[in-house]
Amino acid sequence: MVIQPKIRGFICTNAHPVGCAVNVQKQIDYVKQQGVQGQGPKNVLVLGCSTGYGLASRIVAGFGYGAKTLGVCFEKEASESKTASAGWYNTAAFHNQAKQAGVYAKTLNGDAFSNQMKQDVIDIIKADLGKIDLVVYSLASPRRTDPNTGEVYSSTLKPIGSNVTTKNLNTSKRVIDEITVEAANEDEIANTVKVMGGEDWELWIKALKEADVLAENFITTSYTYIGKELTWPIYGHATIGKAKEDLDRATQVIRNMTADLNGEAFVSSLNAVVTQASSAIPIMPLYISALFKVMKGDGTYEGTIEQIHGLFTDNLYAEQRRFDEGGHLFQNYKELEDSVQQRVQKVWDTVQTETIDEMTDYVGYHNEFLHLFGFGFDGVDYDADVSPLADW
Ligand code: NAD
Q: Hey, which family's this protein in (predicted)?
C-alpha cells in the first residue's frame, strides 16, 4: 500500500511504518550520542509507552541506561487495507531495535485503566523481572472506564468559571482566527479529574505494592504541563489543570503508601511539545509555534526526547534535583523564563495570517506533527508500496 498522510483537523488518521521507525531511530541515536552518567533505572514500567513523552522515557531507559522495559499502550493494529496507529509502529520499531541491542522489552496493548491489565503486568513482572524500580505514568486519554464500576468518564478541555475567547492558529485552514471555548460545568470538571487526575496512577502503585513487585527505593513519576499566563485560560486554570492538580494529591498518597520501601513519587513538569495529546488542545498550535520560534532562535529548543533525556540525567537520577515552587521536578524551566514568555506573548499579540511564517515556527510545528505519524522524513520514499502489517 502507498501511504500518504490523511489529516483530519488536529489528527492524522493513518501512519507510515517506515517513517515511524525513522522517528524511533532518531530518538535512540540522540540518546546514544548524548549518553548518560551515573546510576539509573534497571527495571522500568512505562504506562503510555508508545508515543510522546512515554515513548521517549522508554527510549532513555532502554537505550541510555540499558534498562529492561515493560510497556503498556493502547494502539490499533493494521489490517490489509488500513494502517496501524503510529504508536503501534513505534512500538514495533522499538522492539526491533531492542532485540538487536539485546535489551529486554515487552509491551502489552490494551486498557491500562483496567484491573485486568494491572494483573497481566504484575504476572509479567513476576515471571521476567522480579521487581520494578521505576514506574513512568504517561497516559493521555480522552476517556477512562472506572475499573470497579464500569462507568465511562470523558475528559474535556474547557476553561473554568467563564467562557474564553482567544486567538487561535487554525491548522486546518492555516489562518489566525479566534475561538471561543465554553466554560465547563461541575460534572465536566469532575470527569476530567477522573480521567486525567491521579486516581489511576495511585491504583497502579497500590496494585504493584500489594503484589510485592516494587523494589526498595523505587521511583515513580507522572508528567504535567505547568505553563504561564498565556496557557492558563485553557490549560493551567482549566479542566485539565484541575486534573493535573490532582496528581499532586496522588503524589502524597503514593509517598505515604510506599514509605516502607523508601519509595519516591514525583510529578515532573515538562515542556509544551507536539504530541497527539497536545495537538488536540485549543491554543497549543499557536503557543507552540511561537515558542519554537523564540527557543530555536535562542538555541534552547528541546523536543520530547531532549526533555526526557534531561529529566532523567539532570533531575530524576541526578545528585541534586531541581524543583519548581509547587514541588514538581522542574524540567521546563527554560520555556518558563520570563524573557521567553514575554517574547512569545509579543508574537501572540501581533501575529496575523499573513505573518504566520515570519513570526512563528508553524512550519516546524507542522513538520513535528507529521513526524508523529511517520511522515515528512527525508530519505523515506512515500510513493513506495509498503506493507502496513507490523508486529512485535
Ligand atoms: P501521547 O498522546 O503522545 O501519549 C499517550 C500514551 O498513552 C500513548 O502511549 C497511548 O497509547 C497511551 N494510552 C492512552 N490511553 C490508554 C489506555 N486506555 N490504556 C493504555 N494506554 C493508553 O501523549 P503525551 O503528550 O506524551 O502525554 C503524556 C503525558 O505527558 C500526559 O500526562 C501529558 O499531560 C503530559 N505532558 C504533555 C505535554 C505536551 O506538550 N504534550 C507537556 C507536558 C506534560
A: Belongs to the TER reductase family.
